[in-house]
């Protein structure tokens, strides 16, 4: 799913164009979990985000990471890979699921 569609789904569609203009993709959003305070403030200023919207964005990103860790998130092949390799990518992603969410802190 592209970032713009996802933003619409989580009621942050107003940021769709500015994210697109600034090249914000899924990999970039995933890397936000290790941002420093300075990087977070820069992101908020650059994308003209309200604090509440930024918090919503972070909560939704965390929800996706938790779903991946639990095996509930659907795994897809990368856009650049030929469809004949779909099974290979899905199997590899399922085997490596935990390695993709190492920055996640589970709270009890």
Automatic annotation (TrEMBL):
Domain of life the protein comes from: Eukaryota
Record PROSITE patterns: SAM_DOMAIN
Residues annotated as domain SAM: 1-33
InterPro entries for the chain: SAM, SAM/pointed_sf
SUPFAM superfamilies with a match to the protein in the record: SAM/Pointed domain (SSF47769)
PANTHER family: STERILE ALPHA MOTIF (SAM) DOMAIN-CONTAINING PROTEIN (PTHR47626:SF1)
Protein name in the entry: Sterile alpha motif (SAM) domain-containing protein
